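INSTRUCTION: Work out how this chain folds

Fields: amino acid sequence; protein backbone structure tokens

Chain under study, with its fold:
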Amino acid sequence: FYGEFVGAAAIAGMVVNQFHGNAKDLVWSVHHAIADGDLGYASYDFSYTSKMAGSEGRRVSFAGMSRCALRDGLIARYDEIFERGLALAQLEFPEPRIIKSLRRWAQASDH
């Protein structure tokens, strides 16, 4: 949602600055986690109350799936799939902003 973060310090900063900086009452329920060798998958439900300017107090809730590349028992890469547009609509972002964000994500995933 916030882009790519590499390394433990960057990921910790993202959790503090983006997750907790923009939200309160976070609930991240992970289900059906499985791992086999160097690959792990899980589904999740994620919700929070926005602290973002213009979206304060709006509750956001969505489901997703994560994929982890594992190396030496640690997560080497984390990817996830979820309905980004749903989250932006729940935040009541203006439609041009939602479309701009979705186009940017679509272009980034077009390898």
